[in-house]
Amino acid sequence: MKILAIETTCDETAAAVLGDDLTIFASVVASQEDLHEQYRGVVPEIAARAHVERILPVIHETVQKSGFTLSELDAIAVANTPGLSGSLLVGLTAAKALAFALDKPLVTINHLHAHVYACQLESNRSVFPCVGMIVSGGHTHLYHYSDALNPEYLGGTIDDAAGEAFDKVASMLKLRYPGGPEISKLALHGNPQAHAFPRSFLKEDRLDFSFSGLKTAVRYSITGPGNIDPTSIELTEKQSADIAASFQQAVVDCLVAKAMQAVRKTGLKRLCVGGGVAANRVFRDQLQVACNEQGVTLHIAPLKFCTDNAVMGAIAFERLKAGLVDELDIDILPGLVREKQ
Ligand code: KG4
Ligand code: ZN
User: Fold this and answer.
1) What is the strand order of the sheet 140-145 is part of?
2) 178 lines ligand 1 (CB under 6 A)
3) What is the mean pLDDT of residues 1-28?
4) CA pair distance 270, 220, nearest whole angstrom
5) For 117-304, which CATH class?
6) C-alpha span between 202 and 238 (Å, rounded)
7) How far is the CA of 224 from the centre of ligand 2 (A)?
């Protein structure tokens, strides 16, 4: 069985042709980073319009690269939740049009659980059951997965997502968007102990995160107290690098601590991590050390499938196997529905 998977939840227009043995026949990602860079964050209106321009060329290129024709594919999969409304609508509408015109089943997928499913792409055995962690620009969540389609929410951020904090701190340090890769590059030259930034809930028995206090602490480390624009302050290269390294270490400490706490609480011995922040080298290394110490098997999404892509849409095969297909009147769900994922 082969499917076309479409991803337009935020600011990447992506498509992939995938086999049910998780063969990747083709994968194309059209990034919009250049469009959002000057705003140091994603502008929803610009994202939606860029998806409109790019969706058909991206699908066309993907199918052509796969060597198949559209009519040879067995289903159309698309992420319809969570994400930016305008962005989601473009992908869902394209997927519906294809499913209708080709008379193929439509399968909608949850973008968050697709991020975790990216861990399955490089594993010969099922990575489920597991604790799943999504660390992306929009979400920082922990789930107990009995299997790929049955996640139970364990906890998550009560304010900013980890990636969002990276992006905001990068903006304060006058770095480019997206901020994560820029901060981690700068942090290589900094001292992670230079600033004692706060780590929320670290000692508490709850699987939640909070990064807004950390963001404020970083801001004051640049400006001092008061309502001063951090970008108006000139820092030396060393000062910026120390802030970047100390900030990154604070985020990593929280992510590693809560992931391990979730593993202990659930009694599961397997941890799967996906999402853009999972590309962070310090996080990957320190989480691996913690998992080794506690005898936990760690699966982190392959680097190229941490940030948004359509290959992780392979989770659609799990839905197809379970006989779960969607009607053509299905809608987008921009917000996260915790009760029923
Ligand atoms: O998963 P993703 O592509 O989009 C969402 O679903 O949100 O994640 C994008 C986020 C951005 O906030 C970006 O700054 C962050 O992932 N990111 C990183 C790294 N690479 C991307 N954060 C920390 N370190 C990185 N190396
Ligand atoms: Zn994502």
Assistant:
1) 151-156, 140-145, 130-135, 270-274, 297-300
2) yes
3) 97
4) 39
5) alpha beta
6) 28
7) 34
3-state secondary structure 280-324: CHHHHHHHHHHHHHHCCEEEECCHHHCCCCCHHHHHHHHHHHCCC
CATH of 2-111+308-321, one of 3.40.190.10, 3.40.1000.10, 3.40.30.10, 3.30.420.40: 3.30.420.40
Whether 340 has a pLDDT exceeding 90, the answer reads: no
Question: CA separation (Å) from 195 to 4, 107, 183, 192, 247?
Answer: 47, 47, 15, 7, 8
Q: Does residue 83 line the site of ligand 1, with CB under 6 A?
A: no
The per-residue pLDDT for range 147-196, each reduced to its tens digit, is 999 999 999 999 999 999 999 999 999 999 999 999 999 999 999 999 99
Phi, psi for residue 162 in degrees, rounded to 5: -60, -45
Looking at residue 337, what is its pLDDT?
Answer: 65
- The pTM of the whole model exceeds 0.90: yes
pLDDT digit string, tens, across residues 150-159: 999 999 999 9
